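WARN  no MSA supplied for this record, continuing single-sequence
INFO  ligand: pantoate
INFO  echoing inputs
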Amino acid sequence: MTRDRAIRTVHTVAALRAQIQGWRAAGDKVALVPTMGALHAGHVALMAAARERAERVIVTIFVNPTQFAPTEDLSRYPRTLEADLAKAEAAGVDVAFVPDVGEMYPEGFCTIISLAGPALGLETTFRPTHFAGVATVVAKLLLQALPDVALFGEKDYQQLQVVTRLARDLDLPVQIVGVPTVREPDGLAMSSRNVYLSTADRATATILYRALSGAAERIARDGKVEAAVEEARAVISAAGFHLDYVEARHAETLAPINGAGDGPIRLLVAARIGATRLIDNVSVPTLN
Ligand code: PAF
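INFO  complex generated
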C-alpha cells in the first residue's frame, strides 16, 4: 500500500532533474542534503539548516558501495527507508532522491576521483579507498541536482574538508556548508553506527568526546599540543578502545601541525570498540 506524502520520492536522475527544473522556473533556491539513510537527529539538523538556506530541500538516500572496502559493513549498514522518509518529511524536505545502485553506477561505470590534500592520512590510513568513493558519489549527486547549497555534518570532519576542496577544485557551482555535530546528552556524537554498540560499549563510548574536549582545553591553556594528544590517546586506550588515531591537524587543510601556533587546530579521533568503529572531532579554542 502506498501512502500520500507531502514529501515526494524519486528514483531516477531524470525525475530529479525534472522536479528541480520546475523549482528553478519558479525562482526557488535549492539545497541538497546527501545521506546514506538511517537518519538521526544529526541529519535532521542538516535538513533544518538546509531549510533556512533554500526554498526547496532535497535529501538523497543512497548507501554508496564505492566508499566501503570489501571488509567493511556495507551489507549490514542500517537501511530504514520508511522511517527515513517520515523523518525527512517532518523536517520539511520536499524531495527524497533514492536511486538504486544501477542508477548511480550503470554498467561500464569506470570513473573514480583521485584525491590528495585533506584526504591524506587520518581515515585514509585505515580506509584507503573510502574518500575516492565519497568524492565520486558526492560529485555525481552535486552534478545531478546542481543545488545552490549542499550541507554536510562536521561529525565527518575530514569528509567535509574533502568535499569542500572537491567543489572548489572542480568549479562546482555550489556552496558547501558544514553543520555542527549533534550530540547525545552525554556527549556521544550522533551516528548511524551507534545502533551497533552494546549497552556496555555505548557507556564507554562517551570517553571519546570527553578525552578530545579535555585535550582541546589543555592546548588552549598551555599550548602543548603533543602532550595533550598523547594524554587523550592514553585515556581512550585505557577505556578499552582499540585506537586508530588521535591527531591534531590544521582545521582547514588537515595538514599535520608542529605546534599550537600552526592553528586553527582540529583534534580528530577514530577508535574501535567491539565490532564498531567510531569517529569524532572537536575544535581547539584559540590560544589566550
Ligand atoms: O556522510 C555520508 O553519509 C556519506 O559519506 C555521503 C556524504 C552521503 C556520501 O555517500
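The chain has two domains: 8-179, 192-283.
INFO  checksum written, moving to next record
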